[in-house]
Write a structure and sequence with these properties.
CATH topology of the largest domain: Glutathione S-transferase Yfyf (Class Pi), Chain A, domain 2
Radius of gyration: 17 Å
Shape: globular
Structural class: alpha+beta
CATH class of the largest domain: Mainly Alpha
Strand order of the largest sheet: 2-1-3-4
Order of helices and strands: EHEEEHHHHHH
CATH architecture of the largest domain: Up-down Bundle
Largest sheet: 4 strands, mixed
Number of helices: 7
Strand content: 5-15%
Oligomer: single chain
Distance between the termini: 23 Å
Helix content: 40-55%
């Protein structure tokens, strides 16, 4: 099994954390989908990471699809079987991925020539990020612990990515999020997958 991706992508990190939590052996191939020499389209025609190549050469892509597949393999379950609990975990995964989507959109727009940047568009994405952070805090406070899930992983990877790319977004000032994040950072799966 081979995972193709970037160490700085929150979606790739989500998959890497799941692989580590489940103890699944794999090779990690670092690729930059933005490079003109990228090989990512060989594994994902959309030229996006992550992509996972299986032993038979078949590739699957999109972090949601990959983690759903990985959760069927041996190791601790990160997506519950109970329909309601499953829906809540998948909702939290969508929340984390949505925060990442908005943050990445903000970053890309901010990298354009200043004269071409759309400040209203950046503000709209920032409001999504802020709203998403607040929703993660409420979710964490409401659950008060329990086993780690794919929803936790997606939300944590999004927040850690924000901290990496937008240190001015000081989500750790929320004591609920700070305690939750610090507990996750103690896990080897998060420690060994830091971006950079």
């Amino acid at each position: 099994m081979k995972l193709i991706g970037s160490k700085t992508s929150p979606y790739v990190r989500k998959v890497r954390v799941v692989l580590a939590e489940k103890g699944i052996a794999h090779n990690f191939v670092e690729e930059n989908a933005w490079s003109v020499e990228t090989t990512v389209p060989r594994f994902n025609p959309l030229n996006k990471v992550p992509a996972l190549t299986l032993e038979d050469g078949e590739s699957i892509y999109d972090s949601v699809v990959i983690v759903e597949y990985l959760d069927t393999l041996p190791g601790p379950r990160l997506i519950p079987e109970d329909p309601r609990e499953r829906a809540l975990v998948r909702r939290d995964e969508a929340l984390g991925d949505g925060i990442s989507d908005a943050g990445i959109t903000m970053r890309l727009e901010g990298q354009r020539d200043p004269a071409r940047q759309d400040s209203a568009w950046i503000a709209r994405q920032k409001s999504k990020v802020d709203s998403g952070i607040n929703a993660v805090s409420r979710s964490v406070a409401h659950r008060k612990g329990g086993p780690m899930t794919v929803g936790d992983i997606a939300c944590a990877c999004a927040l850690f990515w924000l901290e990496f790319r937008f240190p001015e977004i000081r989500w750790r000032e929320d004591p609920v999020l700070r305690a939750w994040a610090e507990s996750l950072e103690q896990r080897p799966s998060f420690e060994t997958t830091k971006p950079g």
